[in-house]
Design brief:
The protein has 17 helices and 13 strands. With 392 residues, the protein is of the alpha/beta class. Strand 11 and strand 12 form a beta hairpin.
Length: 392
């Protein structure tokens, strides 16, 4: 592919990504994979270059662009090299017209940028949300030790006791140690969120929104494979990914429970009042993960945010019934919006007399209301809000 053809390919992909964002369709990475699956002639350098152009354009645009071409023109406005590739060649984009619309810059759609600002995320804090994330690993303490694990590339030790950091794009999943279950890919902030649970060997712990089980596996390692660990979720496909991951990690004490939306309390009845700790890693807007999924900010709407906060409140209520007297409830969102963190926790404490906030002592993060906030700018992690409560 010529450089101009790469720009045209990026424009076509951006069109598909913008349409998918408006309709809650497939994520960008899947659309990119499908695009090149149908274009086998594109070599690895072409695929890499086009992908970089696409994500650079997504990061450069705040509100949802009117078109893929408008998004790419946002890049061209700041980079003469890209502007010159709008040359009207056979496989390249048409020449730039004087009155063509150019996508607006910014951090996010206006309403969302304002919500972040009201939550204390402005300036460098906000800009860091669109940086490039490193690649973090959690060494699996059931099978290996961080200090003695030999890997093809030396990683940077992190504040989390089992964390290592590598450059973005490091092919860690091709390493033999990955196949042997010696480590899992897990953001540093996510590892710290698991530490907040303070899971101990022999305890009964519930990961209420387990998804594919990344945090469940970290909890199993913290529990030294002893005790009871229940992973539940309403997503059958994602929860189904946990079993092979657990087998690879040597985490043999995990039980799974597929929940039926609306009937969670009924299905969890045998666990009521039994858990020493319950982790609620609640579905959220994902504002803290934009470094990895920058197009996610185009998918969020005020109505969707309202539905998410209602779900978060319902999950907290469900979790209270599972915690034994004196037990722990840990609430986590990968969001920096107060609507999904500090504000919701304040309501919870007002509505649940006897429950008390128990601020976790983490190596990173700053106090934010009755919880801890991690941000890309201050902590080099994904953005998280983490709160812990003790049951009456």
């Amino acid at each position: 592919m010529t450089p101009a053809a790469r720009v045209q390919a990026a424009i076509e992909l951006l069109e598909a990504i913008i349409a998918a964002a408006r309709t809650q369709g497939a994520p960008a990475d899947r659309l990119i994979a499908e695009y090149f699956r149908a274009r086998r002639y594109a070599g690895s350098k072409d695929r890499r270059a086009v992908r970089e152009l696409v994500y650079e354009a997504i990061r450069a645009c705040g509100p949802v662009p009117s078109s893929g071409r408008a998004a790419m023109l946002r890049l061209a406005a700041a980079d003469p090299v890209i502007a010159e590739l709008f040359d009207g060649s056979a496989h390249g984009p048409a020449a730039i017209a004087a009155d063509e619309p150019v996508a607006a810059g910014g951090i996010a759609p206006d309403w969302l940028e304002q919500a972040l600002a009201a939550s204390g995320i402005t300036g460098e804090e906000a800009a860091a949300l669109l940086g490039r994330a490193p690649l973090d690993l959690r060494v699996n303490a059931l099978r290996a030790d961080r200090g003695s694990l030999a890997l093809p590339v030396v990683g940077e030790p992190l504040a989390a006791p089992h964390g290592l950091r590598f450059a973005s794009g490091t092919p860690v999943e091709s390493w033999p140690a990955f196949g042997e279950g010696l480590f899992e890919v897990q953001d540093h902030g996510s590892q710290l969120a698991c530490q907040a649970v303070a899971a101990q060997p022999g305890e009964t712990v519930i990961d209420l929104c387990a998804g594919a089980g990344g945090k469940t596996l970290a909890l199993a390692a913290a529990m030294e494979n002893r005790g009871t660990l229940l992973a539940s979720d309403t997503d059958k496909r994602r929860l189904g990914n946990l079993a092979p991951r657990a087998a690879r990690a040597g985490a043999s004490m995990i039980e799974t429970l597929l929940l039926d939306p609306g009937r969670e309390l009924e299905l969890l009845a045998p666990w009521q009042g039994r858990a020493d700790a319950v982790l609620v890693d609640a579905p959220c807007s994902g504002t803290g993960t934009w470094r990895r999924n920058p197009e996610a900010r185009w998918r969020m709407t005020p109505a969707l945010l309202e539905r998410l906060t209602a779900t978060q409140e319902r999950l907290l209520e469900l979790a209270t019934s599972l915690v034994r007297p004196g037990g722990r409830l840990v609430y986590v969102t990968c969001s920096l919006l107060d609507a999904e963190g500090r504000d919701g926790i304040d309501r919870f404490l007002k509505q649940h007399g006897g429950w008390r906030a128990d601020l976790p002592a983490l190596a990173l993060g700053r106090r934010h209301g009755e919880g801890i906030r991690l941000t890309p700018f201050h902590d080099g992690t994904d953005g998280f809000f983490i709160a812990r409560f003790t049951s009456p």
